[in-house]
């Protein structure tokens, strides 16, 4: 589903910042105080009914979060990453900050000197162990461009980590380390079971300060912040700062209910508005990320937008609800079933669509190939269409291009119909280069992320599997011949040297 019309912006001057990556060492404090409670008079005490058994910590601040922190902290890890920042034309790295990043002693504060056309940048985030053999959950943006990942355990041990899988659309990533013995694991809770006003605790590594604990409450649920098509964030006022990304948000029982991801800030630091991915969403995706490295989602083939009261009135939808279809992909499942622009989708697979933002998540969680009933309002009249959803073409294998695993150094994904149309490609033509490993044969041949591979060894290709099959059958010692179309549209041949 195209999500371009689903994104929302904040008020001018405010930004939503991902809370991982490089940073300048700062200082932050937080405190939780118990409110003063006046003692009732004796006669009032005698007349008062017996109180109901309270939920944990309900109604007043807890005396201490120490037991919770002691139990949960051993499963929280510090994720250190090293990545390459490409140099701009003037030799400076893109996004180079005036004061620099990091807390080392180098003059560039986190950047090394230029190396092979780029700069080495060190960043920091958080994560938590979900399996005793060293499986860790964190944010995709923490490890997305990492060349090297080091996990620091709560006892100070440092272990190399590899990416098992990652999903940019939900900002989730699964890492794996190889410990010598079983590790403590985080208890996973139910994010649907928390309520606005419940106490929550965040544990992570803000500004590199390992295993820092902060507390607050759930401020809101189901927040859409414009981060992607599957926005469904928990909002909290528990202080979250740069370096907290990927760390757990826990309920009062010490169970993980969210993964800290973003902050709403004018300064880059916490102002009491943070966002976490619900753990229930992560639970659905982790098995796929472990097994295949990426997430396979269903595709309906529509672009949707919010149905305002004015639009609802003109389209005959009262009261306003549902998702307005702004566009339909010509080769998508919706078009094949008869859905048209101007239709308002009010129910999907038996589930009512109250807000348009709910539809992408429902479609994405549908098994590929399933036929579902889609109810729409067209010209004020209700209609039902049977739609067989397809696999989303932009599902991307999240494994980083790695010289040890892919001798050509390519990460690939298939193109969406919209991307093919933008590049003047025929239906099914070409495969997109999603990433290129540094110093790999692909990089040396000038292949770049965003190029489209049209042929491999003079054979036209339309899927990632075709590219893998053709490149895998190239004899050792013989170059791999590619026909590529860069973003400028000028096709060229490239020979990748075998090694």
Note poorly predicted spans: 1-17, 21-59, 87-117, 396-405
Shape: flat
Q: What is the end-to-end distance?
A: 40 Å
Q: Beta-strand level of the residues, as a percent range?
A: 25-35%
What's the total helix number?
Answer: 10
Question: Under CATH, the topology of the largest domain is which?
Answer: Thrombin, subunit H
Can you give the helix content as a percent range? 10-25%
CATH class of the largest domain: Mainly Beta
Question: Which strand order does the major sheet show?
Answer: 9-10-11-14-13-12
Characterize the biggest β-sheet. 6 strands, antiparallel, barrel
Tally of strands? 28
Rg, please?
25 Å
**Average predicted confidence as pLDDT:** 78
Question: Any idea how many domains?
Answer: 3
Structural class: alpha+beta
CATH architecture grouping of the largest domain: Beta Barrel
Give a quick summary of the entry.
The protein has 499 residues and is α+β, with helices and mostly antiparallel strands. The chain has 10 helices and 28 strands. 14% of the residues lie in helices and 33% in strands.
What would you say this structure looks like, in words?
There is one protein chain. The chain is of the alpha+beta class. It has three domains: 15-24 and 64-294, Thrombin, subunit H; 298-391, PDZ domain (Pdz3 Domain, Roll), CATH 2.30.42; 410-496, PDZ domain (Pdz3 Domain), CATH 2.30.42.10. The protein is built from ten helices and 28 strands. It has helices at residues 42-47, 66-72, 140-143, 279-292, 309-315, 333-337, 358-364, 417-422, 441-444, 464-472, and strands at residues 15-18, 76-86, 118-131, 135-138, 146-152, 158-167, 172-176, 187-188, 199-204, 212-223, 233-236, 248-250, 255-265, 274-278, 298-299, 302-306, 323-328, 344-348, 351-352, 371-378, 381-388, 390-391, 410-413, 431-436, 452-456, 459-460, 480-485, 492-496. The strands form five sheets. It has a six-stranded antiparallel β-barrel. A six-stranded antiparallel β-barrel has the order 2-3-4-7-6-5. Strands 16, 17, 18, 19, 20 and 21 form a six-stranded antiparallel sheet that branches. Strand 6 and strand 7 (172-176) form a beta hairpin. It starts with 14 loop residues before the first strand and ends with a strand. Mean pLDDT is 78; it is low at 1-17, 21-59, 87-117 and 396-405.
């Amino acid at each position: 589903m195209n999500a371009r019309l689903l994104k929302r912006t904040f008020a001018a001057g405010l930004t939503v910042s991902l809370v991982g990556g490089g940073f300048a060492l700062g200082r932050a404090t937080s405190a939780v105080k118990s409110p003063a409670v006046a003692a009732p008079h004796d006669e009032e005490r005698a007349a008062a009914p017996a109180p109901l058994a309270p939920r944990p910590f309900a109604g007043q601040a807890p005396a201490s979060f120490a037991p919770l922190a002691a139990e949960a902290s051993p499963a929280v890890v510090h994720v250190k990453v090293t990545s390459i920042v490409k140099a701009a034309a003037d030799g400076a790295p893109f996004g180079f900050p005036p004061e620099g990043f990091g807390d080392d002693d180098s003059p560039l504060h986190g950047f090394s000197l230029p190396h092979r056309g780029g700069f080495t940048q060190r960043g920091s985030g958080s994560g938590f162990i979900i399996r005793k053999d060293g499986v860790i959950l964190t944010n995709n943006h923490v490890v997305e461009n990492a060349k090297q990942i080091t996990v620091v355990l709560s006892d100070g041990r440092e272990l190399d980590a590899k990416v098992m899988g990652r999903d940019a659309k939900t900002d989730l990533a699964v890492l794996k380390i190889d410990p010598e013995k079983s590790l403590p694991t985080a208890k996973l809770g139910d994010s649907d079971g928390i309520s606005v006003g419940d106490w929550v605790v965040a544990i992570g590594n803000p500004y590199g300060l390992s295993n820092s604990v902060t507390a607050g409450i759930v401020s809101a649920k189901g927040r859409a912040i414009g981060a992607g098509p599957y926005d469904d964030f928990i909002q909290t006022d528990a202080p979250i700062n740069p370096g907290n990304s990927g760390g757990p948000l826990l309920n009062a029982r010490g169970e993980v209910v969210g993964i800290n991801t973003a902050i709403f800030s004018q300064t880059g630091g916490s102002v009491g508005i943070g966002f976490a991915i619900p753990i229930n969403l992560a639970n659905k995706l982790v098995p796929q990320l472990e097994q295949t490295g990426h997430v396979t989602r269903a595709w309906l083939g529509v672009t949707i937008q919010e149905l305002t009261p004015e639009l609802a009135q003109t389209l005959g939808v009262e009261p306003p609800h549902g998702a307005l279809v702004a566009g339909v992909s010509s080769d998508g499942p919706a078009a094949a079933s008869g859905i048209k622009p101007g239709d308002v989708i009010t129910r999907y697979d038996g589930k009512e669509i109250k807000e348009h933002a709910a539809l992408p998540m429902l479609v994405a969680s549908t098994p590929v190939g399933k036929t579902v009933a889609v109810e729409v309002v067209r010209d004020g009249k209700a209609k039902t269409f049977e739609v067989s959803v397809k696999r989303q073409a932009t599902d991307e294998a999240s494994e980083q291009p790695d010289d040890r695993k892919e001798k050509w150094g390519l990460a690939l994904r298939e193109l969406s119909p919209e991307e093919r149309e933008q590049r003047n490609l025929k239906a099914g033509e070409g495969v997109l280069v999603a990433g290129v490993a540094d110093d790999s044969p692909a990089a040396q041949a000038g292949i770049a992320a965003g190029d489209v591979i049209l042929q491999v060894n003079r054979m036209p290709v339309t899927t990632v599997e075709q590219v893998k099959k053709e490149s895998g059958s190239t004899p050792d010692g013989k170059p791999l011949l590619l026909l590529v179309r860069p973003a400028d549209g000028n096709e060229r041949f490239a020979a990748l040297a075998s090694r």
